[in-house]
């Protein structure tokens, strides 16, 4: 399994340019996996990467320089490359080839390893154009890491399957069912940011690919209630997932004093990982961050309860609305009693928390237009 702490996600808006700079055009998503030792990949890195990607490996292309040891490899010569078939081969051979792929003899920068499908034609003198359903692994950053470049493949979902899950403290025997985690390299921020537009505001469409999801609505403050824990538990059971992450894209500010001077420092909010079996008391403590006393999640207007890219909740405190998004491919219809399709929600948004919505006909009309179940286009 890959180690989450060694992963960085390239922002979606930067993916095309970053990929092009690496000689790979058309990348929609890019993940970077750093080696534990910046000097060279360790045996553990080679093992972990081949264990994670081995079943998807199709072929490796080695730059066929006359001074390199690649000339001795068994394989076809194509466009300045020596091609080695990996599909159907043993993990031992894949590890041997990957080690050579990374370490090389002369320079591995132009070596390419194809996942899922391969290019029919390749030329080492030209940019590679990714095809739909294709991913490429390439050595990057002075061979201190590999880049995984993809088109038409949900790398978010794939990496959730091949990375080590950050075990809850409950599993480790401490008894706690939640913890705060620093979002190093903004991995979670970028993962969610690939799915939603952080700058968009309701009633506009905040989801980048709304045609992929069914949406269900409730009042925002339901997500503070004890009953909401039952919702999280039910969703977790349906997804066969034991935890959910609570995230906000906001920052908070801290005053740092030194002698007579003071400085305002902006601090990114850590996310919380919660067990779906969390108690009412523990959920309240994490919402109000009882242990930190510096911030609490109830301070922020936007919150996400994130299971994975297939199912998560967006909460907008300012407009008092929360949205449950479930990917249509899961074939799961609304599993929760307190959540409604947008038309039903707009007809009766709630007596206690959303009375102002009843007088906002334009707002509700646009909300329905953007989120009704038959909506197949981005707003």
What topology does this entry show?
Layout: E1 7-9, H1 15-21, E2 24-25, E3 29-34, H2 43-53, E4 57-63, E5 76-78, E6 81-85, H3 91-103, E7 112-115, E8 128-129, E9 134-140, E10 145-151, H4 155-162, E11 178-181, H5 187-193, E12 213-219, H6 227-239, E13 243-247, E14 251-258, E15 261-268, E16 271-275, H7 280-287, E17 302-308, E18 311-316, E19 321-327, H8 342-347, H9 361-371
Parallel strand pairs: 2-8
Antiparallel strand pairs: 1-3, 3-10, 4-6, 4-7, 5-6, 7-9, 9-10, 11-16, 12-19, 13-16, 13-17, 14-15, 17-18, 18-19
What does this structure look like?
This protein has 379 residues and is an alpha+beta fold. The protein has 2 domains: 4-162, no CATH class; 178-371, no CATH class. It is built from 9 helices and 19 strands. The chain has helices spanning 15-21, 43-53, 91-103, 155-162, 187-193, 227-239, 280-287, 342-347, 361-371, and strands at 7-9, 24-25, 29-34, 57-63, 76-78, 81-85, 112-115, 128-129, 134-140, 145-151, 178-181, 213-219, 243-247, 251-258, 261-268, 271-275, 302-308, 311-316, 321-327. The strands form 4 sheets. Strands 1-3-10-9-7-4-6-5 form an 8-stranded antiparallel beta sheet, with helices on both faces. A hairpin with a 4-residue loop joins β9 (134-140) and β10 (145-151).
Strand content of the residues, in percent?
25-35%
Helix content: 10-25%
How many strands in all?
Answer: 19
Low-pLDDT sequence parts: 165-176
Structurally, the number of domains stands at: 2
Strand order of the largest sheet: 1-3-10-9-7-4-6-5
Task: Give me the secondary-structure category.
Answer: alpha+beta
Largest sheet: 8 strands, antiparallel
What is the number of helices? 9
């Amino acid at each position: 399994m890959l180690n989450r702490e060694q992963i960085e996600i390239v922002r979606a808006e930067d993916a095309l340019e970053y990929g092009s700079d690496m000689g790979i055009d058309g990348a929609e998503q890019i993940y970077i996996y750093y080696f534990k030792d910046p000097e060279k990949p360790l045996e553990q890195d080679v093992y972990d990467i081949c264990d994670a990607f081995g079943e998807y490996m199709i072929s490796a292309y080695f730059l066929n320089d006359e001074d390199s040891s690649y000339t001795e490899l068994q394989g076809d010569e194509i466009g300045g490359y020596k091609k080695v078939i990996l599909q159907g081969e043993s993990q031992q051979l894949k590890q041997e080839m990957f080690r050579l792929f990374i370490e090389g003899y002369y320079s591995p920068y132009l070596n390419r390893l194809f996942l899922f499908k391969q290019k029919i034609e390749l030329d080492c003198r030209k940019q590679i154009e990714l095809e739909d359903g294709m991913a490429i692994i390439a050595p990057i950053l002075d061979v201190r890491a590999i880049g995984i470049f993809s088109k038409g493949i949900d790398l978010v979902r794939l990496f959730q399957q091949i990375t080590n899950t950050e075990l809850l403290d409950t599993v480790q025997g401490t008894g706690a069912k939640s913890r705060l985690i620093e979002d190093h390299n903004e991995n979670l921020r970028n993962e969610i940011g690939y799915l939603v537009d952080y700058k968009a505001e309701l009633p506009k469409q905040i989801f980048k690919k709304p045609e992929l999801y069914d949406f269900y609505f409730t009042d925002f403050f339901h997500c503070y209630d004890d009953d909401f824990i039952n919702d999280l538990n039910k969703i977790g059971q349906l997804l066969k997932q034991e935890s959910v992450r609570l995230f906000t894209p906001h920052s908070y500010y801290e005053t740092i004093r030194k002698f007579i001077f003071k400085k305002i420092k902006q601090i990114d909010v850590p996310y919380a990982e919660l067990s779906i079996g969390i108690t009412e008391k523990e959920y309240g403590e994490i919402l109000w961050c009882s242990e930190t006393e510096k911030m609490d999640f109830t301070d922020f207007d936007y919150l996400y309860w994130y299971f994975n890219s297939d199912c998560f909740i967006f909460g907008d405190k300012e407009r008092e609305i929360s949205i449950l998004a479930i990917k249509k491919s899961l074939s799961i219809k609304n599993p929760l009693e307190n959540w409604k399709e947008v038309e039903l929600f707009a007809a009766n948004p709630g007596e206690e928390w959303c009375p102002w919505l009843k007088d906002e006909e334009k707002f509700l009309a646009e909300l329905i237009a953007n989120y009704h179940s038959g909506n197949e286009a981005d707003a």
